[in-house]
Specification:
Blueprint: H1 2-14, E1 23-34, E2 40-50, E3 53-62, E4 72-80, E5 87-97, H2 98-117, E6 118-119, E7 134-144, E8 155-164, E9 169-179
Antiparallel strand pairs: 1-9, 2-3, 3-7, 4-5, 4-8, 6-7, 8-9
Helix pairs in contact: 1-2
Length: 180
């Protein structure tokens, strides 16, 4: 869930109110890995329920209650005009504790949206560890492209979401951004 949440946080952060350009966003691939398979499992895939609207479906399973006090999270965004030779971009979510991420960007960008498309996503006024055992199932969590900032460069973006320390999980999303 943390990786999926980080994806949605970043995509929502990129969707500031904009005037002018309309983008087409293709989610080309979703990959993940963990060194703590006894704690987390996932299956996420890109979906396109309608033209110009893209999202993710799948599940993230937390196999037991997880103390998240020592888990850190960050998101790095890489850009390439051609799909090769990615460069680190200025868009990012800096390293922070999982609880800070849940109590700030998650609440600001994700909580309401996930309530509409996910079963068992955490919804609370304030996140307090542990993250309880659950299977979070998401169906067509959407990312409309009409509100992207007009300053984004067209091309390819690779989002890398990292959770580490007590829970180790990496999620990588490859996106292509073009004019609609």
């Amino acid at each position: 869930m943390g990786g999926f949440i980080a994806i949605v946080i970043l995509l929502r952060a990129l969707m500031c109110v904009a005037v002018g350009k309309q983008y087409e966003l293709d989610i080309l691939e979703v990959e993940w890995n963990t060194t703590t398979p006894d704690l987390i499992d996932a299956s996420l895939k890109p979906v396109q329920p309608s033209r110009g609207v893209y999202g993710v479906s799948g599940f993230i399973e937390f196999k037991e209650d997880i103390d998240m006090d020592n888990t850190l999270a960050q998101v790095k965004v890489y850009y390439s005009s051609t799909g090769m030779n990615y460069q680190l971009s200025p868009f990012r979510v800096p390293e922070q504790t999982f609880a800070t991420g849940m109590n700030t960007p998650y609440k600001q960008y994700l909580m309401d949206g996930l309530a509409e498309c996910c079963e068992n996503a955490p919804f609370a006024d304030t996140f307090v560890s542990p993250l309880t055992k659950r299977v979070m199932t998401c169906e067509n969590c959407l990312f409309p492209s009409e509100n992207f900032p007009p300053t984004l460069r067209l091309g390819y973006y690779r989002l890398t979401i990292l959770l580490y320390n007590d829970l180790d999980f990496i999620l990588s999303i490859l996106l292509k951004l073009d004019l609609a």
